[in-house]
Amino acid sequence: MLLKSLFRFCSLKRYNFQDILMLQRFSQEESKNLNLKQEVLYFYFHSKKVFFKADGTVLELQQAIKKQIADVMSVGVYQQTNNDEQVEYASSTPMQLVLAEDMVLRLNQTESYIILNKVDNPPVIDLIDNYPITQHALHEYFSEIDVPQRTKVVLSNFIQKLLSEIEKHKELTYDKDLIMLIIKKVIMKLGIYSQAQKQIIDDQISFLECKQNRLAHLKDSIIKELEMKEQTTLYQIYFYILMQIAFTQYGTYVVWGWDVMEPVTFMLGVTDMIIAYQFWMKTTKAYTFGNVLQNAVNKHLNKRLAEQFNYSDELNDVNRMIEYLKFKQMVYSSDIYEVISVIEGAIEEKQAKLQAQEEEEQ
Question: Across-strand partners of 105?
């Protein structure tokens, strides 16, 4: 419940979703160890793993969620759209189709959760299958020039939309003016779509950054609490030192004298050296009051953070999702004219290198 209440502050601000989750896949080694005969995906819901089959249907996903999450009576799976009018997938829809993009889960008709799908695989060239020759040509073209990944994504998306638009009007006779008109139409559509997507991504990044700050605040508050408690460790060290001083002074000048106390003080010094050396061996840090306190705090910090949820995994997931969304944000912030300029620069650079090589050979 701590994790749920921790992020309720973020979801109450202005968002139409409760949380953003990350879809995760088992590695080949993990699949082999678990003896998985088909691909199984999962996501963390309030620090609990929810599993489902990647090659199943929406109905199977809904059944898996109801079985694994308590108090869930209904599950809706929606396509993430540019506005609040989300499109719900039919129960018979194959998950392979749903997993082609991010999706939205609506639980009990009240709570919505965005599931980010391609966090580990940022958007790549993804042309529709109707144009295999163009797809192959683009891959060949990009392999010959050095351009950023976002440039490849924007250009491939533009060409996909352009070819789709041309396909709609294939009965027409094309000339230069008609092609230019279609290109302008596609650029306008892409511009409107990109603006809408940027707004969605901005909201998602804002929400995740709020989660990131709340996690940091939680860790800081626990550290301060532990530092107050672990002050007793320092007091124990102070008491041990004072007791050594009092004992050596009392033994030397009141009870036994220096002949007896000399080997005792030597052994006390050796004991202090052993304690300091042991601390350094364990922590590779100097034996100081500050380092002793920090070590005592760190020893209990992870345990405290793991009492309700896996803090480290949660923070790593949030960081990866922010990185993924910022890449998408960068893609939608680029227009086709900027992309063409980048490609022209890469071509000129390549031509200059080839010309220099030819001159060296001559």
Answer: 77, 113
3-state secondary structure of 44: strand
Distance in angstroms (rounded) separating the CA atoms of residues 102 and 93: 15
Outline where 35-80 has alpha helix (H): 58-68
Ranges of H-type helices in 169-254: 176-229, 231-250
pLDDT per residue over 124-164, tens digit each?
444 333 444 455 566 666 666 666 666 776 777 777 777 77
Which pairing describes strands 19-22 and 24-25: parallel, antiparallel, or unpaired? unpaired
8 Å CB contact between 7 and 211: yes
**How far, CA to CA in Å, does 35 sit from each of 3, 29, 317?**
32, 10, 25
Dihedral (Cα; 98, 101, 105, 111), 10-degree rounding: -160
Q: What is the H or E stretch that residue 89 is in?
A: none
Each residue of 264-320: pLDDT tens digit?
Answer: 888 888 888 888 888 888 888 888 877 877 787 777 777 777 776 677 778 888 888
Nearest Cα to 109, choosing from 64, 78, 83, 80? 78
CB-hemisphere CA count at 13 Å for 42? Answer: 14
Distance, in Å, from the CA atom of 174 to the CA atom of 136, rounded to the nearest integer, reads 24
The pTM is what? Answer: 0.64
Q: Over the Cα atoms of the chain, what is R_g?
A: 31
Order of strands, edge to edge, in the sheet holding 19-22? 19-22, 111-116, 103-107, 75-79, 87-88
Which positions ≥6 away from 35 have C-beta within 8 Å?
none
Per-residue tokens: 185: 């139409």
Residue with tokens 């968002």: 15
Distance CA 210, CA 85 (A): 25
